[in-house]
Amino acid sequence: MKQNIYFDNAATTAVRKEVFAAMKPFFEREFGNPSSVYEIARNAKRHIEDARLKVAKAIGAEPEEIYFTGSGTEADNWAIKGAADANKNRGRHIITSVIEHHAVLHTCEYLEKNGFDVTYLPVNEHGIIEPEELKKAMRPETIVVSLMFANNEIGTIQPIKELAEITKSGGAIFHTDAVQAVGHVEIDVKEMNIDMLALSGHKLGAPKGVGALYIKKGTKIEQFIHGGGQERRKRGGTENVAGIVGLAVAVELASVEIEDERKRLEFLRDKLIKGIEEKIPHIRVNGHREKRLPGNVNVSFEFIEGESLLLHLDMSGIFASSGSACTSGDLDPSHVLLAIGLPHEIAHGSLRLTVGRDNTESDVDKVLEVLPGIVQRLRDMSPLYNPEN
Fold it and tell me: Can 108 be counted among the known catalytic residues?
């Protein structure tokens, strides 16, 4: 029987067994609504507050600064729209970057249609936002700066502390989409001067449909979802108790294991990159070589289409992607790869392999065994490929 290999952990991860075990009671006997007053409801409420403490501890926040959401996308939307609306009387200028996740980019586009001015910072060839570019973009009327912690496609980690300090010195609110970073990179929101941070459960072994937004105490922000008085009257809607419990367990486990897991993933990542470079010509590794997420490999192959590459890998039992899962049905090349200077024809031939908790060295060996042959077959069919080059 074919052994499938999953190398798309940036898109989503399997729920960890410890997480599933912690969640299970809240689908069965502990199913109470946390807003009710009887015992099983009080138990649910208590577990939500315990989860809030665990998530806060993992990023150096206070429990009352953590608000649970339905996703990282919701957290990003709330942070940017909520802060923009609450602070529009003192300015309508927002700064973000050209390589943000579409949860941020589309939110900023929406705000542009509603009277806000948005500056999109460029990045260098490695996908890094130069602090000087942020300094030049800051204005007296800048109210929100939203820059991602680590890129979901090429894995580049930004100089967040420096970017946040520039933002704060200009009197603006600093938000970071840390969906790809939490659980994989050490984060201390206080030490890094972060005002708001978005995270998502399904990127680190918790279920889909649960996330969180850190909001620093004193940050001026409007409510996003109106309804009941949940989440200290900031986010209406009956809480996803099982998901919240699962998120907290996943974050806590990742925090404990972060250093050992980082070293393991970096070893697998680097072996994968080295093997691809040695076995396959006419390639480019995208993103910064050192300042990148421990499990991220992003490579562009000349003379082939990324979609064909993915289909052939799929037939070999290897599951990967060409970029963000949120745009997998889009025929346009990645906006991230175009932003770092790749021409359209090379950006179209990109492959993202993201290594995760369940991957092993034998998985890497299998990819390195199968991938060169697939690339060569596709190149042999391409009218653009000349084997003499």
Answer: no
